[in-house]
Amino acid sequence: MAFSATHSTTRIVLAERPEGTPTASTFRTETAELPAPADGQLLVRNRYISLDPYMRGRMSAAKSYAKPTPLGEVLPAETVAEVVESGHPDFAAGQLVATYGGWQSAAVVPGKMARRIADNGLPESTALGVLGMPGFTAYAGMAEIGRIQAGETLVVAAAAGPVGSAVGQLAKAAGARAVGVAGGAEKCAYLVDELGFDAAVDHRSADFADRLKSACRDGIDVYWENVGGKVLEAVLPLLNLYGRMPVCGMVAQYNATGVPEVPDRLPGFMRAVLNQSLTVRGFIQTEFRAKHWDGFQQDMARLVAEGRMKYREDVVEGLENAPEAFIGLLEGRNFGKLLIKV
Amino acid sequence: MAFSATHSTTRIVLAERPEGTPTASTFRTETAELPAPADGQLLVRNRYISLDPYMRGRMSAAKSYAKPTPLGEVLPAETVAEVVESGHPDFAAGQLVATYGGWQSAAVVPGKMARRIADNGLPESTALGVLGMPGFTAYAGMAEIGRIQAGETLVVAAAAGPVGSAVGQLAKAAGARAVGVAGGAEKCAYLVDELGFDAAVDHRSADFADRLKSACRDGIDVYWENVGGKVLEAVLPLLNLYGRMPVCGMVAQYNATGVPEVPDRLPGFMRAVLNQSLTVRGFIQTEFRAKHWDGFQQDMARLVAEGRMKYREDVVEGLENAPEAFIGLLEGRNFGKLLIKV
Questions:
Q1: Closest CA to A197 of A211, A181, A212
Q2: Enoyl reductase (ER) domain spans which residues (chains A, B) (predicted)?
Q3: What are phi and psi for residue B29, nearest 5 degrees?
Q4: B279–A275: do the CB atoms touch at under 8 Å?
Q5: CB A114 within 8 A of CB A86
Q6: CA B105 to chain centre
Q7: Is the pLDDT of residue B4 over 80?
Q8: CB within 8 Å: A281 and B278
Q9: Nearest to A339 by CA among A164, A190, A126
């Protein structure tokens, strides 16, 4: 390897496992020296760090779909980064990549975990949003599970978020009716006025279930579940025969610490599954990478260029503000894809 | 139409909608005169009446996957019957058919709702069991949803029943491991000794969840859900990645009158769906009739002939005993496909 000066990184590590909502003491900021990249590795400088709800799961020791982050280790995140020094033949210094750089200013990563950012005329940050993991989650889940048809009705929870807004716009592009559920009048107006949803329902409204019913006169064919909680409850009686329910997140439950002491809703859920011949399917987008990634990049870039796939970013400046931004994300305070600009 | 004497039928009608478990006053026995069959109709004499858990749903006014039986009307059931007089060109007097003759001694039915019983060398009653609706439910649900592979593990609840026993034997025929859940030592012994299940677990045992875990060392790939309740709870932590859950019945809930006051298990269920990328799919066998019925008749008759698909019937003599037999069915007191011999 070429001679290389050491590089330092400022990083945020998991200081303690949160009980319920993370707090300031969940996180600790450190400075560390990074080694030069070995063969196959890249030294990168992070430019944008993606904060996503699934990260709450990594902070717990409990079984989830990914391994927990060990205490004292840097919190994981996908990042857009510039290659500073390359030990991998496919990459050169100065190139922009999407990789798993974590909550830090610089990182040494395996080259096989990096991908060149396509030259599609869009801002580099979209590689973490509409053209990255959230956009792909929407695309693959609709292709494999939602399979919405023209004339059908889709309801998506967390509709103003990066996954939900893509899901709704994909439904519109397929000729279906899109109904979004979001928190607050501003997000609801955005869904209808900016993204072209047919209707939006504020889950904070007292008569939420009635409003949702009014917005879904022909019932619901696809319910995109990424929240959990009361949205699902209001959706259940409206689901049509052969309804589909892609399940890609449970953000409302990520902070839960025990079994809620309310009446058991599982029997009612299973009755709906049986009575309406529903398909409920959990998934993580990695399952569909090999099959759909290339088509996703092409289709999504085209929809964006045609103005049929809009996106919104919520960019927070400064790594030091990541913990507070993440806590706000779990509480629904952000509006658009949450990114840290390093 | 040819001249025809009137025929009388003894029938059991829905006297009142049961709250919880049906009782004697749910039912009323009547005698009525039947008209001669009109064009397209058949006058049939029922020989066997099939009693099935789904009938509990028809007794309630609540929304289900089929319309409720109106008060005062004869309770619906599939039957094996002899054609007494035919107004349909495809049928002649003396032929045996499977049709929807109801809880009565004779009926006038549409010819299009009848099918000739295939001459396959098996007793006519099998047209209501292993070669009828229960057997087809198992066959179609495994073909379309369970899709079990050699080396995988299946768990089926109500395993000694007509659907469950067929499901387990289909899994064995596919080279998979079959674990049955049933109530009591006699049924469990039957599953292993007679049907060739790899293991059986008594859901009445105090350490049921531990026993199930011991019987499923490699986890569970397919859980066939036709019961609801505590079996599902014990299954959830054992399900493997990409597990499938065909849902074709909720017998444990059919008598439920309200929302159970226990901790809410829906969040835990949805977490399992997400973490393990599960597929949960409700279905009624009619959905798959056109696609799979002919293959079912051939495959199942062959498996029976080869001794790889055994079945058991619980035949109760006398229409007057149908109500008590049905109540026992909901409580798991029968052992084998419950039939009334008229």
A1: A181
A2: 20-340
A3: -95, 135
A4: no
A5: no
A6: 22
A7: no
A8: yes
A9: A126
Residue range A308-320: mean pLDDT, rounded:
96
Average pLDDT over residues B95-111: 97
The two tokens of residue B2 are 């040819």
In whole angstroms, what is the distance from residue A225 CA to residue A231 CA?
9
Contacts of B272 in chain A (CB under 8 A): 282
- Residue B82's CB: how many other CB atoms inside 10 A? 15
Contact predicate B187/B160, CB 8 Å:
yes
The length of chain B is 342
Complete domains list, chain B, with CATH: 7-125+312-341 (3.90.180.10), 133-285 (3.40.50.720)
Determine, for residues A281 and B282 on separate chains, whether the beta-carbon distance falls below 8 Å. Answer: no
Inter-chain CB proximity A279 and B284 less than 8 Å: no
Region B88-117: mean pLDDT is: 96
One-character DSSP codes across B150-198: TT-EEEESSTTSHHHHHHHHHHHHTT-EEEEEESSHHHHHIIIIIT--S
Strand pairing partners for B31?
B10
User: What burial class does residue A260 get, using C-beta atoms within 10 Å of its C-beta: 0-12 exposed, 13-18 middle, 19+ buried?
Assistant: middle
Residue in the block written with tokens 């792909």 = A136
Q: Which residue of B has its CA nearest to A288?
A: B277
| Parallel/antiparallel/unpaired status of strands B106-110 and B41-50 | antiparallel
A-chain residues within 8 Å CB-CB of B232?
Answer: 266, 270
Task: Select the residue of B259, B263, B280 nearest A259 (Cβ to Cβ).
Answer: B263
Tell me the shortest Cα–Cα distance from A194 to chain B, in angstroms.
31
* A9-40 burial code (b ≥16 CB/10 A, e <16): bebbbbbeebeeebeeebbeeeeeebebbeee
Q: Residue A262 pLDDT > 70, yes or no?
A: no
Taken as a whole, chain A contains a residue count of 342
Of B262, B264, B274, the CB nearest to A282: B274
Subunit contact B277:A65, Cβ cutoff 8 A: yes
Residue A334 has a pLDDT of 85
CA distance A110 to A88: 8
Alpha helices in chain B (DSSP H): 55-59, 133-141, 162-173, 185-189, 208-215, 230-235, 266-275, 289-305, 322-330
Contact criterion met (CB < 8 Å) for B260 and A259: no
In the prediction, which pLDDT does A226 show? 83
Chain B residues with CB under 8 Å of a chain A CB are 63-65, 225, 228, 232, 247-250, 253, 256, 259-284, 287
Contact B275 A63 (CB under 8 A): yes
| pLDDT for residue B154 | 98
pLDDT of B236-256, one tens digit each? 999 999 999 999 976 555 555
Question: How large is the ipTM?
Answer: 0.88
SS (H, E, C) A167-183: HHHHHHHCCCEEEEEEC
